[in-house]
Write a structure and sequence with these properties.
Pfam families: PG_binding_1, SLT_2
InterPro entries: Lysozyme-like_dom_sf, MltB-like, MltB_2, Peptidoglycan-bd-like, PGBD-like_sf, PGBDSf, SLT_2
Organism: Ancylobacter pratisalsi
Mean pLDDT: 84
Order of helices and strands: EHHHHHEHHHHEHHEHHEEHEEHHHHH
Largest sheet: 4 strands, antiparallel
Number of strands: 8
Protein name: Lytic murein transglycosylase
GO molecular function: peptidoglycan lytic transglycosylase activity
Strand order of the largest sheet: 5-8-7-6
Strand content: under 5%
Number of helices: 19
Distance between the termini: 65 Å
Structural class: mainly alpha
Radius of gyration: 23 Å
Length: about 475
């Protein structure tokens, strides 16, 4: 097979939507869901509109001192999700779909194609339960990374890259993206194609476009999905994925497919479901458009000196490698530091007692694929392990308890009551909350690593706030 990639080809002029990656979230303040019908793998960030569900491999065994992850479920009180509102939307479903014909026509879907693909379409009301009653998995960053970067996934990644060596070589040359990172995304998103989801994308996005609380967002996704099947890029019978509409070997949302998909095998269609070449080329294109810089690693494990100023562990405080060296930061086991002029920021995903990393612009490119630190770290580490690299040298702490979503919300509420800016009090630990935690840690004499742990929550409770 020859590859004559079309790296500049876009399937639509609208740069909307994003790659959707899924579920299993944790102490990072993110919630997802798991279902045997859904896709294996990853982790949804705060900006992900609806997390695609995954069935994950069992977590590795941990020492007894670490509490087991807790699962809980919750329901929404959103007015669009009441029984009466859902029943009304279900009755109005056909009319709602018909109302989107002008929008689809404006995006190039003919009247005949619109009627063909929407005829007899019915809502899948089981999706509403998935949307609103999602089990919350409470895992630390260490649990999450070790779960995903398993020996089985490493082995299968090497096998997949060997089987499709020509594709990965061409992807690397065309886009300047590390092909091992592309393979790692494939492995974490769908277990190298073994778990892509079984929900018809047209029905799933149509349901979410007309029923419940995410209608405005999913109308664009539904119209984009119509465009995909109307153009013949992916046959309707093959366009299946998660309940939230993500599909393909590396899980594209329909609008993300329009923006980033490429016909890498030059057969006339960008088919990220059936063509490994198209899926890997499209994923590399996504990373390149996200700012990937050729010839640079995603990041480096480092060891911090005693007495280190943990206020420097901030993604807004990037420094050159020369500057980090001057501060006593070293790579473990005497490994050489990168180019002195290369810039990076310090990330402590498990706080001051866990591994430390200097993250480059390429880590940011992975974050643009999915904006969650643990996801991007797992991608980078899996890529290195597939390449033949070693496990992390520094152990993950065994005595850190990940907070449940209820506890994270309580922590935010207690911080906000003391005047700290935490952003929305929603249990999602974004940059504002981490900054507030760091400021509080400074005030009470804790190591200011910005980690929302049980220690911080206990301190807030004892403070009477």
């Amino acid at each position: 097979m020859s590859f004559r990639p079309l790296p500049g080809r876009r399937l639509s002029g609208r740069p909307a939507g994003q790659m959707l990656a899924g579920s299993m979230l944790v102490c990072l303040g993110l919630a997802g869901c798991a279902s045997p019908d859904d896709v294996t793998g990853s982790l949804a960030g705060p900006s992900t509109v609806a997390a695609s569900a995954r069935t994950a491999a069992p977590a590795p065994s941990r020492p007894a001192s670490r509490p087991a992850p807790a699962a809980a479920s919750g329901t929404s009180t959103h007015p669009a999700m009441t029984d009466a509102a859902l029943a009304r939307d279900e009755r109005n479903f056909s009319a709602c779909i018909a109302e989107m014909e002008p929008k689809a026509r404006a995006k190039g879907v003919s009247a005949a194609a619109f009627r063909r693909y929407t005829a007899g379409l019915t809502p899948d009301m089981s999706i509403m339960k998935k949307l609103e009653t999602q089990p919350e998995f409470t895992r630390t960053a260490g649990d999450y990374v070790e779960m995903l970067v398993s020996e089985t996934r490493i082995r299968k990644g090497r096998e997949a890259m060997a089987e499709h060596a020509a594709v990965f070589e061409a992807v690397g040359k065309t886009y300047g993206v590390d092909p091992y990172v592309v393979a790692a995304i494939w492995g974490i998103e769908t277990n190298y194609g073994g778990a892509r989801g079984s929900y018809p994308v047209l029905r799933a996005t149509g349901t979410l476009a007309c029923v419940g609380r995410r209608k405005a967002y999913f109308r664009d996704e539904f119209v984009a999905a119509l465009g995909i099947v109307a153009r013949g890029d992916i046959p309707e019978t093959h366009l299946k994925g998660s309940w939230a509409g993500a599909f393909g070997l590396t899980q594209f949302m329909p609008t993300a497919f329009q923006r980033d998909a490429v016909d890498f095998d030059s057969d006339g269609h960008a088919n990220v479901v059936d063509s490994v070449a198209d899926a890997m080329g499209s994923t590399a294109n996504k990373l390149k458009r996200g700012g990937w810089r050729p010839g640079m690693s995603w990041g480096y494990e480092v060891v911090l000196p005693r007495g280190f100023d943990y206020l420097l562990a901030d993604k807004h405080k990037a420094k050159t490698m020369r500057d980090w060296w001057a501060l006593g930061v070293r790579r473990p086991e005497g490994r050489a530091m990168p180019r002195a002029s290369e810039t990076a920021y310090l990330l402590l995903p498990a706080g001051a007692n866990g591994p430390a990393f200097l993250m480059t612009d390429n880590f940011k490119a992975i974050l643009r694929y999915n904006p969650a630190d643990a996801y991007a770290l797992a991608i980078g580490h899996l890529a290195d392990r597939i390449r033949g690299g070693d496990p992390f040298v520094q152990p993950w702490p065994d005595d850190v308890r990940a907070l449940s979503r209820t506890e994270r919300t309580e922590l935010q509420r207690r911080l906000a009551s003391r005047g700290y800016d935490v952003g929305p009090v929603d249990g999602v630990l974004g940059q504002s909350t981490r900054s507030a935690v760091r400021d509080y840690q400074v005030r009470v004499g804790l190591l200011p690593d910005g980690m929302a742990t049980g220690t911080v929550l206990d301190s807030l409770r004892s403070d009477g706030t």
